[in-house]
Predict the structure.
Amino acid sequence: MALTRREELAQNLAAVQATIPSGVHLIVVTKTFPVSDAQLLHELGVSEFGENRDQEGREKAPLVPGKWHFQGQLQSNKLKSITNWADVIQTIDTTRYVELVSKAAEKSVEVFIQVSLDGQVHRGGALPTDLNSIADAILATENLKLQGLMAVAPLGQEPESAFLKLAEIHQKFKSEYPSAPYLSAGMSGDYLSAISHGATHVRVGSSILGSRE
């Protein structure tokens, strides 16, 4: 007999949770999946959700209690909307966006600085040499709360070596900004490697919800 969607999600969620050490935040990424899936996951105990697109977050967040993370590339014309539904923005990567997000936000928002691991800033992410100026700009605002760093393993690069590099960047950053100790890294295919290199937040979608269309 085929599993119901709830049973399927419960099974997948339990399998992922069994591999995650206590203290590591599991952010379930619901992009492209319906709000009904997010509601079922909430019933199953999920408290943190991630979205890459403003439109989807805007539709789902009001209907599903929990902490909502925006983890897509920022666009200045969407900031008013994003800061309205997202509790956390994971992809700040320039001082310009610090200013724009702070201006758009009418409430306090937690933020991560996205760091580029391959030096290709056009794909999103700040160079490691720019982290301090961005962090200082965030700390100078009243409504943005710096949490730490976020990164995505570059396409075509061994996640292990990418996360090794990230761990070094993170250690240095943490020693300079002890009030922002968190590290968001790792997705369905590589979150275990990210955790072994210090990730405190992992963003998992397809391992729980199934493959995307």
About this structure: DSSP finds nine helices and eight strands in the chain. The chain has a mean pLDDT of 96. Residues 25 and 202 are 6 Å apart (CA to CA).
